[in-house]
Amino acid sequence: MKEKLSFEEAFQELENTVQRLEEGELTLEESMALFERGMELVNYCGQLLDEAELKVKALLPTQGEGYKLVEYSDQEGIS
C-alpha cells in the first residue's frame, strides 16, 4: 500500500469496500479489483495493529509506580 492511511481511514475504506461487494451490483472486473483492494486494506490494518501491539508490549512496569517505554532495540530477551 503506497499511501499512508490512519488505521481508522483504512478500516473505514475496508468497510465501504465490503459493503459495495455485498451489494452485488458490480461487474466481475470491478468485484475483483475491490476484492484485491480489500485484501490490501486487511493486510495494512493487520500491520498497524501488530505495530501497536509491539508498542504496548514495550511499556514495562518499573520497580516504582508506573511504566517505562523500552526502545525496540532494547526488547530482545523480553517476554
What is the mean predicted local confidence, pLDDT?
84
- Separation of the first and last Cα atoms: 31 Å
Radius of gyration: 19 Å
Which percent range fits the helix content?
55-70%
* Number of helical segments with 4 or more residues: 2
Shape verdict: rod-shaped
How many discrete domains?
1
Order of helices and strands: HHEE
Order of strands side by side in the largest beta sheet? 1-2
- Sheet with most strands: 2 strands, antiparallel
Give the amount of beta strand, in percent.
5-15%
**Broad structural category:** mainly alpha
Indicate the low-confidence ranges by residue numbers: 74-79
Number-wise, the strands total: 2
Describe this structure in words.
The two termini are 31 Å apart. A hairpin with a 5-residue loop joins β1 (59-61) and β2 (67-69). This protein has helices spanning 7-23, 28-57, and strands at 59-61, 67-69. The chain is built from 2 helices and 2 strands; from the N terminus they run ααββ. The chain has one domain. It is mostly helical. Strands 1-2 form a two-stranded antiparallel sheet. α1 packs antiparallel against α2 (28-57).
